[in-house]
Write the structure tokens for this entry.
Amino acid sequence: MLPLTRFRKIVVLTGAGVSVASGLRTYRGAGGLWTSGEESAVLATVEALAARPGEVLALFAAMREAVRAARPNAAHEALAAAERSASGRGASFTLLTQNVDDLHRRAGSRDVVELHGNLLHSRCTRCDRAPFADASTSFESCDACGGQLRPDVVLFGEHLSVDAERAAKHALRGCDLFVAAGTSGSVSPASNFVRSAAYEGAHTVLVNLEPIDPPNPAFREVHLGPAEALLPALFEA
Ligand code: ZN
């Protein structure tokens, strides 16, 4: 559907809608993880982690199990294939994701910026031990300092990592195609990213299950439907 060979610097932003077909609930919206169980929304905050670490870490341990059991779906596969095809002709293809489920990497995407971190990585709450892959689900203590480990994800009340923000800005500079998929196009970061991309003169596309309300005029093309059906068609070689 998109004449991909016309584009030299492609940026795709994905949100929770891309992982629905993998059996993972979206974070917000009807039935969402943060909205349906009020308790989980309350726990996914920086204050709760400090006050009730046991409960918060148990919630994330359960999420880690769910993510491990999930498999990439046709949306993830289509994006990984599009990146391979772009690389093959010397074009750049960067995936910015709000998802913490690691499914883009598992599908084979390489140039991935995880804006909200990665649930399968841990970091220490005390020392500067860098985010590292963690096979456990119990969030034990840090090998280096004995501090409590936590998932390397951005909680409510925390900022995006400086590195991720810088990587996103770098990707958007000079991009000529911007696609937002499985995310509402009217809230941050999609709303900011599409504005930056439009300013760069990029072609801008939204792929989402539901129309944006209010509509965002920065998107020149809107496709409504499930990401796992639309992305393979949109990125067809
Ligand atoms: Zn430590």
In short: The longest strand covers residues 117-124.
